[in-house]
Amino acid sequence: MRQDVVIIGGGLAGSEAAWQAANRGAKVTLYEMRPKEMTPAHKTGGLAELVCSNSLGSVDPLTAPGILKEEMRRLNSLVVRAAEQARVPAGSALAVDREQFSFQITQALEGHPNIRILHEEIIEIPTDCLCIIATGPLTSDKLSQAIAALTHSSHLYFYDAISPIVDADSINMDVAFRASRYDKGGDDYLNCPMDEATYGKFYDALLAAEKVQPKEFEKTPYFEACLPIEVMAERGRQTMQFGPLKPVGLENPHTGKRPYAVVQLRTENAHRSCYNLVGFQTKLTYGEQKRVFRMIPGLEQAEFLRFGSLHRNTFINAPQLLRNTLQFKARGTLLFAGQLVGVEGYTDSAAMGGLAGINAARGLAGVPLLSPPPTTAHGSLVSYITTTDSKRFQPMNMNFGLFPPLAAPVRDKERKRQLIAQRALTDHAAWMTQSGLS
After folding, report:
1. Which residue stretches of the chain have pLDDT < 50?
2. Domain map of the chain by residue range?
3. Deepest of 62, 71, 175, 221, by most Cβ within 10 A of its Cβ?
4. Topology of the domain covering 162-311
5. What was the pLDDT predicted at 129?
6. The domain over range 5-155+316-435 is classified in CATH as 3.50.50.60
7. pLDDT of residue 39
């Protein structure tokens, strides 16, 4: 057996796994095929390149994603640290400058004495080492085939959609206004207000617009938390108004009234030079994106720096295949991490990568592997992906519904969340101490 931990995939999960394993004394070889072999969504060869939203979700300590980030911070997470260093204004969301985020992670891993980075494509799963597969939603076809053969099953997959980005200077600020809903987060978002007539025309154009059609073998349900905007519109005329275009909590300072609908834009970098259309992941053709999205008030002359597109998200049937240590049931020297295990979202993927890295280092050292208590954010995710009915398993992101109920029912929603958060962090701290991780 090789005396290093082999990690395949240099995304958020693979990067966090390498960091956690190396910090616990393990020698790590991290394989990332980019830039020699690119994917349809990536643009660079940098580690942890973000290809969808630039937000890692809420840092509010009374939200489920916020609890998860705090647990990761206590584990000395590289992803959380890099995100905080590359943070751009986005209210209570941890949004980042993409280039700075990737640079921080790449620099940290390249400079670690226990980590070796090789830019090579791996097409077969190694059997002579402790190995973590963290190749994410854009796993190469050859490695996908190897995983399918190993698991004796076909992959489950769905499609994430990428939101377009527009140049800030091309946004009409005589129409758009700065504000966050309910004044939470100051003026971090740009808001493009719609009246009822404008919304109606936009809705009709969205339904009629030409879309990129998937091939027959690619047709599959979308992840509910990342629906393309036009798919959302297909579900009903008012559906978008209860989703990304909801006007509640916003008042147009130009009129003093609440708009009929609002399109929000979130900054992509610290300089506020470009913005993404929040919730506007799409499968419209590029030409139709330009035509239809320029119907949004304030975006009539928008210059698109990146159009929206689709990318495949691949995941295994984790309840059937994985132990609660993220080990493959049929081969204890193989672990899976990131979106491959059926979690959804940057932070969730990185958290599973960190846990896999910790366990790989422990396996290499010959000590028992760990699984966090289910009352913690980490543990609740692990519990979901390893105990859910395998026949109905679908990816899930961090939410309060994953936590086990409190011992005594609490009616007040805010108080309930406070107690869940308190219990999670208390149990997580105890687990770290008992496991020698603190």
Report:
1. 217
2. 5-155+316-435, 162-311
3. 71
4. Elongation Factor Tu (Ef-tu); domain 3 (2.40.30)
5. 97
6. yes
7. 87
